[in-house]
Write a structure and sequence with these properties.
homodimer, 298 residues, Rossmann fold, 2 domains, four-stranded parallel β-sheet
Chain lengths: 298, 298
């Protein structure tokens, strides 16, 4: 599917908004030599409250854009909701390229990590209602307990987060003050206390937590502190990147390809380019520039 | 516009979601003898991130539904974003009925309340970016300082609020625990401290705060505690209801009309009826039943 052995692969990454940039970030860390085209369907987010049919229609439009107009050789559906509800529609719409979602890699990583066989999943309301993670865990013999945490996405989008690994490349004025961080820590503690109490009441003995939303990796340090010691955290973004790189393996190692200091990145959004650049840098951990506005219609 | 002198008026109320039910609540308190038809365009919320053209198209569809299919004699645009960006389009689309938005009544109430002439406005991001409140205040000789508070709507929708006047009709399990309320109080304090510090740095001497979002009346007790003593709080919902009732005056006082214990209410939503009934009761302060699903197309 590549133009020639010396042309780097183009990996297309799709999300309903900015959160999928954490998946792109994990991909760049593991495969800096690839080219990337990312589209955020920001005009029509959030997908969470929409019907399956509408989500599938929107997701297929973005997938076609990445494959047909940006020449993507592989497609990563970084959006949990679209992965849960529209993966088959997307595969059908772009049969010429392999398509990978975030849910199966997340469940697979949980399966490898858990010793007790009991795992927790935190996600958005829509993803929890689809039970896509619970189903993917069940076929692997895991018992999953899911919880919707609706306040976490707004807290991340408001920038009330601090992650030393993400913050280092950002301008100082983007760093939030202490009271904001305390609020975020308290919200995380309330949600996880409820989830852990629910688990205890069901004789569920979890040792692993899946971050079932691409916004949540920005909260990882806070989430770690709210869990019992020794609990493992599964980042679907990272698991998905790992699986894709394993899948690509030989293609990525083609002779003539090197690891550039600055990866080749193209960004597209369906609404405010300014907001995408401003918020996007929080998720990607590096500046997001030259975002192009696209109109997908419908 | 009424069928006969003894037929009660039908007041149509439109919002992008549930928040507008606080306006309906204020209307019922002032005019319980009217009939009400409320539509929440829940499938397409939030309007805040959408373009003016799209907001106008959606709002006009809801306005036409209320007038042409539900026989509304008067129309209240309870959504701040739609009031700020689409009021003229709506008036043009349904020229046979009077249309009232929430912004002008809110600014008018602030004008009556403020002695210093300096007022604060808290609202969603989209409403603040439109500067509709600042403009409406300016033409009345007021100086307005606006602040977007993006976390307040998610906190209200998650139910992390306690208002003694609203909570009394709700089942006990809907009452949130203390840690959740403390989070909400802290978020409100952070936003208002920033706004008050900004005012002080500009020699702005505010004595009045406008609640520029229909979700915020549920936070009134918490907001009161975060303001300097003596500051007045303007609830756009209540101001709008007062203005409409003053406008209707004679029509509402038609002979043969009485104040029923149970007002005549019809509810419509464009997405999940179950969610509308569950969340809606928080805003209306009474149970919300028999919500009908409607498809507005487009």
């Amino acid at each position: 599917m590549t133009d020639s052995p010396s042309t780097p692969l183009t990996i297309g990454v799709f999300d309903s908004g900015f959160g999928g940039l954490t998946v792109l970030r994990a991909l760049i860390a593991r495969a800096p030599q690839a080219r990337y085209a990312f589209i955020g369907d920001t005009a029509r987010l959030p997908y969470g409250s929409k019907s399956r049919r509408t989500i599938a229609r929107y997701a297929v439009q973005s997938a076609r854009f990445l494959v047909e107009e940006q020449g993507a050789d592989y497609l990563v559906i970084a959006c949990n909701t679209a992965s849960a509800l529209a993966l088959d529609d997307i595969k059908e719409a772009v049969p010429s390229v392999p398509v990978i979602g975030v849910i199966e890699p997340g469940a697979e990583a949980a399966h490898r990590a858990s010793k007790t066989g009991d795992v927790l999943v935190i996600a958005t309301d829509a993803t929890v209602r689809s039970h896509a993670y619970a189903t993917a865990c069940q076929v692997r013999g895991l018992r999953a307990l899911e919880k919707a945490c609706p306040l976490l996405v707004p807290l991340v989008e408001e920038g009330w987060v601090m992650s030393s690994s993400l913050i280092q490349n950002l301008p100082e004025q983007d760093a939030p003050a202490l009271p904001q961080l305390a609020v975020t820590a308290e919200v995380v503690r309330i949600y996880l206390d409820e989830l852990l109490a629910d688990a205890a009441s069901r004789s569920h003995n979890p040792d692993t937590l899946v971050l079932g939303c691409t916004h949540y990796p920005l909260l990882k340090p806070v989430i770690e502190r709210a869990l019992p010691p020794g609990a493992q955290i599964i980042d679907s973004a990272d698991s998905t990147a790992a699986q894709l790189v394993m899948y690509l393996g030989r293609d990525l190692a083609l002779p003539g390809q090197t690891s550039p200091a600055d990866p080749v990145l193209r960004f597209f959004a369906t609404d405010s380019v300014e907001k995408f650049e401003r918020l996007g840098s929080r998720f990607l951990g590096r500046p997001v520039n030259n975002v192009q506005l696209v109109d997908l219609g419908g």
